[in-house]
Amino acid sequence: MRVWPALLLAMSAFGDDEHRPRAREAGVVIGELEPGPLNAITDVAGVRVGHATLIRGDRVRTGVTAVLPHGGNLFREKVPGAVWVFNAFGKLVGSTQVNELGEIETPILLTSTLNVFRVADALVDYMLALPGNEQVRSINPLVAETNDGALNDIRSRPVGREEVFAAIRSARSGPVEEGAVGAATGTTAFGFKGGIGTASRRAAGLTVGVLVQTNFGGDLRINGAPVGRELGRERPAPAGDGSVIIVIATDAALGPQTLRRLAARSALALGRVGSLGSHGSGDYAIAFSTARGGAEPPPDVLTTLFAAVVEATEEAIVNSLFRAKTMTGNGRTVPALPIQETLAILERYGALRR
Question: Where in the sequence numbering do the catalytic residues fall?
Fold first, then answer.
């Protein structure tokens, strides 16, 4: 095997649980479109992300991740939105009203399965307490989940008001913390430690940003290379043991129906990384636009935006694996994706960008 010099440097620099690079930093360039400056969902102006990570004793490994379309009062300044369902074995609170009215009126919160109801309740508390909402009598909290029961004592339901408020109040623009943080503290993906991942793409002067919470199985492929099988896992990780939440932001002036079409394309990225959407997976995409008015882009630009969301989702998933560290909790240890071995496999298959 011929290993090019940059890869030798990368392999020596990236210890499995020391500095863990993002995919692009390690030479894994996915797709053809250019990312935004941060290669993150926060490349869409105004979008903010915050986490509350809960690690307690040797059993609790969970948390909350908040995505805010803007920094104002979302109930008073709603954004166009849509929810697309790939496989509905999950608990996505608030999805029906979003698809009925085509708008999102709260921060989008991600957490673990049995915490989703407590998080939704706390989110209502947060929204009702905002200045200007004193007379509000109906709130549609939007809360999604994946099941982190392998590494987390999920039945203890430890996430509550304090963590929800902390995640929302910590939400910032700029670089997004990835890996085993927030809602993905206890997740697993493809038999490795899953996590939060993000990426973005620029197309026709517009931006599409994606954030994922990975907790699903399959036969891991990166840039087409069969990484999972090459790492010695001859059988795919159980695809029914988890789910994925995909949050999509754009500054393109898209209405709810087109946002739903945009969200649907993210499933193509799941196939690219080796997922098959089994009976037991809860796979959802939530999309919103930050644009205020204006006409929708023409068909050729829409097609490019569809390509952008596929590329950004694929790279966000890979980033979630690259950035997540080995985690022990609830009597189990889930290893991180081995960076050096993965880079060597990708080089062998010609899947690294020279």
Answer: 243, 281, 283
